[in-house]
Specification:
By secondary structure, chain A is mainly beta. Chain A is built from 2 helices and 9 strands, in the order E-E-E-E-E-E-E-E-E-H-H. The radius of gyration of chain B is 16 Å and the shape is globular. The chains are: A mainly beta, B alpha/beta.
C-alpha cells in the first residue's frame, strides 16, 4: 500500500497487487495484478494492470487486460482500454473507452517511463474546455 | 446522481440495425458517461468517445467569435485521425446551440463521419415545448434512460424542425417520432 502521505514520482512496477492512497506521478505498470486507487488516492499516470479499481482520482490513460471499475467516488480523466468497463452511479469519467478485445492485446505493450503520462488524456477530448469566454 | 427513468424509443434500434454482431462500433456521445450506457455498449466491440459539451454551455457563436469558437471546438473534438463514427448521440444538444454554433460544430465533426453514420437527437414539435433538462443514456436496444439534471444547462432556445433540418448540413432527417411531451425524437443519416 502507498499511504496517504506518500508521494511517488516515476515508474511503479512489480508483481503484486497495490493499493494507492497517496499520490503517484509517472507510470504504473503491474501487468497481471490489481491496482486499486483508494478514495484519497491521486494518480497522474498511465496505468497498466489486470484489474484497475478506482475510488479516487486518476488523470492518465488506463489499460486493463480484464476490467476497469470506477466507483461512485471515482473521478477519471483519460482514455480507457479494457474488455470490460464498469461505472457506478456517481462516477465521473471524461475521455474515451475502448472495449475492443481484439485490439487490446496490441495495446498492452509495456509502458515505460519514456512515455509521457496522460498523453492521450491531453490530446483527446477536452471536456473541461472553457467555451464560456467566447 | 439522480435515479434514472426509462423511456421506450422507436428509433434507437435503427441506430444499430446495420451493425453486425462482432463488428467494431465507434460512438460519439455528447454529454457525460452514464453507467447504463457504458454497460449497454459492453455488449459490443466498441470505442466510445464522450465529450460533455453541455458542461461548456452557453456556447454562443457570432461574427466576432467564430474563428475562436472554431479553434476551441476543433480542440474539443480532437480524435485520432482515422476515427469514423458509426453512431452519434447528440441527445438534446441542438436545443442549446444557435444556428452558427451548430454549423461550426458539424464542420468540426464532419471529417469523422462516414457515408453510413447515423445519429440520434431530440428536437421540439413547437417552440413552446417545455424545457426538460435531462441526462440521457441507453438502457437497452430500445430503451433510453434519463435522469433529471441537478441544474439546467443555460441557453435553451430550440429550433423548429424545419430550421433544424436546414442547419444539420451534414445530416439528413431519416425519421422523426413525436413524443408525449411534444418533443421530437430524430434519427439522422449522414449526408456528406
Amino acid at each position: 500500500m502507498i499511504g496517504p502521505s506518500i508521494i511517488i514520482k516515476g515508474e511503479v512496477t512489480g508483481d503484486e497487487d497495490i493499493l494507492i492512497e497517496g499520490r503517484v506521478e509517472g507510470v504504473i505498470n503491474l501487468n497481471g495484478n490489481q491496482v486499486s486507487i483508494g478514495e484519497s488516492g491521486d494518480v497522474s499516470a498511465d496505468i497498466q494492470a489486470n484489474v484497475i479499481k478506482i475510488d479516487g482520482t486518476v488523470t492518465g490513460d488506463i489499460c486493463a487486460s480484464e476490467k476497469v471499475v470506477i466507483s461512485k467516488s471515482g473521478n477519471v480523466s483519460g482514455n480507457i482500454v479494457a474488455p470490460r468497463v464498469m461505472l457506478e452511479d456517481g462516477a465521473i469519467f471524461k475521455g474515451s473507452i475502448d472495449m475492443d478485445p481484439a485490439g487490446i492485446a496490441s495495446k498492452e505493450a509495456p509502458l515505460t517511463s519514456q512515455q509521457p503520462a496522460n498523453s492521450a488524456a491531453t490530446h483527446m477530448t477536452s471536456p473541461g474546455l472553457d467555451l464560456k469566454s467566447v | 446522481m439522480q435515479k434514472s427513468s426509462r423511456q421506450l424509443s422507436k428509433l434507437l434500434p435503427s441506430l444499430f440495425k446495420h451493425i453486425d454482431e462482432g463488428e467494431l462500433v465507434t460512438v460519439f456521445h455528447v454529454g457525460p458517461a452514464l453507467p447504463e450506457t457504458v454497460d449497454f455498449f459492453s455488449n459490443y466491440r466498441c470505442k466510445l468517445h464522450f465529450v460533455d459539451l453541455f458542461s461548456a454551455l452557453p456556447i454562443v457563436c457570432n461574427e466576432d467569435t467564430t474563428a475562436l469558437l472554431e479553434q476551441q471546438l476543433a480542440q474539443a473534438l480532437t480524435f485520432p485521425s482515422d476515427t469514423r463514427f458509426d453512431v452519434c448521440l447528440f441527445w438534446d444538444l441542438f436545443n442549446y446551440l444557435n444556428s452558427d454554433t451548430i454549423g461550426v460544430l458539424l464542420t468540426a465533426l464532419r471529417p469523422h463521419l462516414k457515408d453510413n453514420s447515423l445519429a440520434h437527437a431530440f428536437s421540439v414539435h413547437n417552440l413552446k415545448t417545455r424545457h426538460n433538462s435531462h441526462l440521457y443514456g441507453i438502457q437497452q436496444l430500445d430503451v433510453l434512460s434519463f435522469r433529471h439534471r441537478l441544474a439546467a444547462p443555460p441557453g435553451y432556445a430550440p429550433h423548429s424542425q424545419n430550421q433544424l433540418k436546414q442547419l444539420l448540413h451534414c445530416f439528413k432527417l431519416e425519421r422523426s417520432v413525436l413524443l408525449a411531451d411534444s418533443r421530437l425524437e430524430l434519427l439522422l443519416h449522414a449526408s456528406l
